[in-house]
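## retry 2 of 3
previous attempt timed out at serialization; input unchanged, resubmitting
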Amino acid sequence: MQNILSNPIVAMLIMLGGLVLFHELGHYLVGRWCGVAIEKFSIGFGHRIAAFRRGQTDYLIGWIPLGGYVKFYGSTRNEDVPEGVTGTLFWKAALWKRALIVAAGPLANFLLAFVIFWGMIMHGLEHPPALVGDVIEGGRAQLAGIMPGDKFVEIEGQSIKGWSDIERIFQKNPDTPLKMTILRKGILIEKNVTPEAVVGRTIFGSMSKIGRLGVALAYPSAVVTITSAASVMALDGITSGDRLESWIDASGAVHKIHGLHETFAMFGDWSRTAVPEIRVTVRPVTIIADDKGRPVERGAKDVREVTLHVSKWPKINAETDRAYAALLGAVDSHLTVGIAKGKASGVLKPGDRMIAWNGKPIQNIFRLQEIMEAWKLPEVTLTVVRDLKEQAVTVSLDPIEVQLPEGAVTFYSLDVAMLGQSTTPDPEITQESNPIKAAGMGLAEAYNQTSVMVVALWRIVTGLTPIKALGGPMMIAKVAGDSAKAGGLAFLATMAVISINLGLVNLFPIPVLDGGQLVLLAVEGVKGSPISESTIENVQKIGFVMVMSLVVVALYNDLSRFWGSMVASIFGAK
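## retry succeeded, writing output
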């Protein structure tokens, strides 16, 4: 069933059909409440595929599900109205009633978004926690003493509910000192940190100056790579690809090792003690591709025990646990190839540790991502450590077309999965059983999403975001299909966001849209008398041309972006 719903056409029909139905219901119900006679209620345009009549109203379903309309008797003063129609003609209704009827459609869309968020919060929303998984070496967070495992509680007096709050606040405050409260091992700690100003993509997809703190949600795998055969780690029997799983204390108790930072921190702790040796259990791992081509970690069945001779380790003279581990000959495996695919297959080998990209040192996986995002050539010379010896290899890269606000952009990707696979923490669940409190939270979420959408639309109107960012039905179909694949809650959340978008777009002051009709009613109110029918007709013709121009641009953008992928998705091609 989910496979059917995730088809982009089916998903779009369900999503847009529901949104249009709710929008037109707003006009319809408020019109009924105001006593205005309703002639037609239609979902969809074009040739009718279903219709019935009840009372004096025709109910229709059109075959083009990209809109709908409610037709009131007496929409214009020159309209011929059949005998026997009961109720007030639209043009004779009080000005405030007509304005309320017109505004009811967009308001219904905002109401729908609120109801969806309200219900989702009562059901329970999963979201990434505000938990630091990794800290970038030399970043502002590390310099401020923020550590893996810290949880953000508050930033500048604003309560932090999840990772998205952190990203939003940091991005919006480059080079701005921020006071924050973090939770570390049950203790609240105050920190003052200034996000570094970098050029990156904003939440709207455009390039701009944003703030970056130097923290990551995902925490590094406890799989190590050995850098030297003469290192203390190698001499004690640790090899590249070993995952350190547990350590055994003097009493024989086994302590689980949960991640790489914990491993490196223990190295430092052990070196400070008088304990001459520590026993650890390790499991060799490899990276394989599952039946869908996704990289997964496969651990060996056999776990071995290794004795680390701590008394022979060098004294700590490094600033961080990670740097000290490097002195011992162990680094994380996030730059070590686990499996190479695409054009890199056969050139890069499992176990290759990347140290430079076209001569530029690669300090960590985050630096590699930045370099790759800026790279525009179809091949690169990589410096790798293979069998503990440096060598240069030329690698062809795989082209990937990405849809950005400025249009389709081709990036070149190194199709490899690293030996050290980062792991994201379990999501937290925001749930509120009290319907009153849940309503408040739903209203806040609807407001936040509306604020983001207003800024995004304003950027398009003012030219800050290129018109190429405008999307039409194919974009909606793709988004709807992708969200349906992610599950029911993701589909509903997407529906809520698009509902807000539909409400805002309909409020644009363009004739034939609800916003344009409200402008005409406002002019009538200021003027003190109705606007002439010829003026209204001419204005609406202009509005129709404007709307159709936007439709053509949106369709052109859609075709240039998604034609190939949409055809493949609709017909199930791979």
